[in-house]
Write a structure and sequence with these properties.
Layout (H helix, E strand, L loop, with lengths): L22 H8 L11 E3 L8 E4 L4 E10 L6 H17 L4 E11 L6 H18 L3 E8 L4 E11 L14 E4 L5 H10 L9 H6 L5 H6 L4 E6 L4 H13 L1 E5 L9 H9 L5 H10 L8 H7 L8 E5 L4 H10 L6 E8 L5 E3 L1
Parallel strand pairs: 4-5, 9-12
Antiparallel strand pairs: 1-2, 2-3, 3-6, 4-6, 7-10, 7-11, 8-10, 9-11
Helix pairs in contact: 2-3, 7-9
């Protein structure tokens, strides 16, 4: 079997952002009594659950620094490299910034999977970086039991354009720029029930760069932004709502899916990744009552998902126009920020 035909997913116990440690476990890991020296230039760090760290350069701009890596979510090495890279670069866009360069993070089972496949993973990464207009400037590799790939990405943002996940205000309209269903489709593929005509749906969503985030950063009526990844839409909505001391009112029927009928059919067949249940266990008590289908869809771990954006209601039409100019996969208003109640997200 050649490197290009190896089924990479059979060598990993997890897939894509579904490999993420659940929010509740992450809280335990990150808990510390150590008091770090204060640095006034560190604008975004461990104090918040944002997409990247941000450091003020003192000239009206800031460095945006992030890293993201995971195990294969697809079998094709080139696609794996593209998806992992687009996913990592997205964190810079989610802060309203522009990426500058990337460094590769590679773990490879050199005695199990052909090293030629690792070369193809890097080719996919180069393709994604080239599309983003940045160099893949170097990296580090290790021999590991499972394939792992991702990037450390450095970007830059004008301070006036910096967006975080804490700036939403009551009344804001919530938008999602990519449809959901990636985890469900990739699980269907693993179970061997994915229909041939659906084979590229998840990949095509995952390789789409969130370049619109840089444009959104320049819009003063965009109050908050984050990307939707391994914690699922509801997990990232909880973060947005907590950051605003609001409750997000989510219209479940308005949430875009890659294909409504197909996604619901796969859910009915039990194609729900393990990460969905871990997500719900971590934050389900913060959410209003859900149907089984809503839980499967709204907690579905997304890999290289879209941007979740909180927009001043007076500028909704202008925002939709900017989405169109930047070719987002969707420009769907999915809810509003409301006064705080006993739950972080109210699903209707």
């Amino acid at each position: 079997m050649t490197a290009s035909t190896y089924r990479l997913t059979q060598y990993s116990h997890g897939a894509g952002c579904g490999c993420k440690i659940s929010p509740s476990v992450l809280d335990t890991i990150l808990h510390s009594t150590f008091v770090a020296p204060h640095d006034a230039r560190l604008l975004v760090g461990n104090a918040s659950r944002d997409d990247a760290a941000v450091y003020d350069l003192g000239d009206g701009t800031a460095v945006v620094s992030t890293t993201d890596f995971f195990m294969p979510i697809v079998d094709d090495p080139v696609d794996f490299g593209r998806i992992a890279s687009v996913n990592a670069i997205s964190d810079v866009y989610a802060m309203g910034g522009t990426p500058m360069m990337a460094i590769a993070v590679l773990g490879w089972p050199v005695n199990t999977v052909p090293v030629e496949a690792a070369r193809l993973v890097l080719e996919g990464a180069r393709m994604a970086c080239a599309e983003a207009g940045i160099p893949l400037a170097g990296g580090h590799s290790i021999d590991s039991p499972e394939p792992i790939f991702g990037l450390a990405v450095t970007g830059r943002v004008a301070l006036e354009h910096l967006k975080t996940n804490t700036g939403a205000v009551e009344g804001d309209v919530l938008f999602l720029t990519k449809p959901l269903g990636v985890g469900i489709l990739t699980t269907a593929e693993k179970k061997g029930v994915l229909q041939p005509e659906h084979a590229t749906w998840a990949r095509d969503v995952m390789v789409k760069l969130n370049t619109a985030g840089a444009a959104f950063g320049a819009l003063p009526y965009v109050h908050a932004m984050t990307d939707v990844t391994g914690f699922g839409l509801l997990g990232h909505l909880v973060e947005l709502a907590d950051g605003a001391s609001c409750t997000a009112l989510l219209d479940a029927s308005a949430v875009p899916l890659i294909d409504d009928a197909a996604i619901r059919s796969y859910v009915a067949q039990g194609c729900v990744p393990g990460g969905t249940n871990r997500n719900f266990a971590a934050y389900g008590h913060r959410i209003s009552a859900l149907t089984d289908e809503q839980r499967a869809v709204l907690c579905d771990p997304q890999t290289s998902g879209g941007l979740l954006v909180s927009v001043d209601p007076a500028h909704v039409d202008a925002f939709v126009a900017v989405c169109a100019q930047n070719n987002t996969l969707s420009a769907a208003p999915i809810g509003v920020m409301s006064a705080r109640t006993e739950v972080a997200v109210q699903v209707g």
